[in-house]
Design a protein that fits this description.
Elements (H helix, E strand, L loop, with lengths): L1 E6 L2 H12 L7 E6 L4 H14 L7 E11 L6 E8 L5 E3 L9 E6 L14 E4 L2 H11 L3 E10 L2 H4 L3 H10 L3 H8 L2
Parallel strand pairs: 1-2, 1-3, 3-8, 4-6, 6-7
Antiparallel strand pairs: 3-7, 4-5, 4-8
């Protein structure tokens, strides 16, 4: 199985790559890619990557990253529904493998500082819609997992990138995740 693991920033990709490579799973074929921040950048860069790597089209796209959250903070969530902030368009993400508690995601091109959706609990990010959209178009299964790090509002205003990266590394049981992905 060929897996493309992607994240929005170089810092996220570095942590993810180090943790997966340290598992020393020799039969695992994994490529790593940094998409950039925001739906438009992600849509362009991931499409360009897949078109320029036609001979290496992955069997699965695994998107891992940090996100904001509304109300209850989980250690890790799996995105199962996405609402695009710009269009209001909703996407239901197929779940080929359940890796974490499922969550809705409000996906915005800019940081979100207030509760938007009429739901009790959801996460907020800037790339999930694009990852799901491109994977749909290329007909590639995808799994989107996120580590909630800042509560929408005051914590978003004081976002601490270093703390977010520490939580990304600490909150994921990398061996367990990769074992489940490979099933």
């Amino acid at each position: 199985m060929k897996i493309l693991v992607c994240a929005a920033t170089w810092g996220e990709t570095k942590i993810i790559k180090n943790n997966i490579k340290n598992l020393n799973i020799v039969w695992l074929s994994v490529s790593f890619f940094t998409t950039g921040i925001g739906n438009y950048e992600t849509m362009f860069s991931l499409t360009n990557y897949l078109l320029s790597h036609k001979e290496e089209i992955p069997d699965l796209i695994l998107n891992v990253g940090v996100c904001g959250y509304v109300w209850n903070k989980e250690k890790l969530v799996q995105v199962a529904r996405i609402v695009n902030a710009s269009t209001g368009k909703e996407s239901i993400v197929p779940i080929p493998q359940l890796l974490a508690p499922v969550s809705s995601c409000f996906c915005s091109e800019t940081p979100v500082f207030e509760k938007i959706l009429n739901e009790e609990n959801y996460v907020v990010d800037m790339e999930s819609f694009a990852i799901d959209y491109v994977a749909q178009k290329f007909q590639i299964p995808r799994i989107l997992i996120k580590v909630p790090v800042d509560q929408v509002g005051e914590e978003t205003l004081a976002f601490d990138r270093d703390q977010a990266l520490k939580l990304l590394e600490k909150n994921i049981d990398w061996k367990k995740i990769m074992e489940k992905v490979m099933k």
